[in-house]
Amino acid sequence: MRKAQIKMGENIAVLLVFTVLLVLGIIFYVQYKRGTVSEEVREQRIKSAIETAQRIAYLPEVQCSEDGIQRENCYDKAKIEAASDVMKNDKNFYYSILGYSTVEIELVYPPPQTKVKLYENIKPGTVSKEMTQAPIAVYVPEEDRYVFGVLKVTVYG
Questions:
Q1: Angle, alpha carbons 66-67-70 (nearest 5°)
Q2: Which residue of 90, 97, 100, 105 lies most exposed, with the fewest beta carbons within 10 A?
């Protein structure tokens, strides 16, 4: 009878150790997966910011054009300033294109630096945000020259 009790105690101890190891393994696995998932979500937001920047590049509201022909990778300063007011007044239409984001165009060189907020729609209850920047050429029709600018797109998640 004594040997049976000792064997039972050994079995219970082995099961207890196995259970503790299993629980610890599950905890480490969940922590690892949580880190992986948050990194994937961040990468998705960065991808979304880049896609939004690409969509803006092809909006006729801001593109340079000459004789009805649009120039690639060129933004028109006069159109940008006009589009800023239009986008503020018609957020519902531009939401389908730009979503929850903030789009700014900053004219950097030559001085003076100016910044135009083209679109802003901040997601209520924003948990995180990712920003991407891209160098752009901005045509200034009043002076008939190009200036260096930066397109800043912030996407909210």
A1: 50
A2: 90
Whole-structure pTM value: 0.70
Six-digit token pair at 119?
Answer: 């679109």
- List CB contacts of 100: < 8 A, sequence separation 6 or more: 121, 122, 123, 126, 155, 156
CA quadruple 116, 154, 134, 76: dihedral positive or negative? negative
Across 81-96, average pLDDT: 85
Query: Domain tally for the chain?
Result: 1
129 vs 104: CA distance, rounded Å: 15
Range of the domain at 139: 2-156
Residue 37's alpha-carbon distances to 26, 94, 147, in angstroms, are: 16, 30, 41
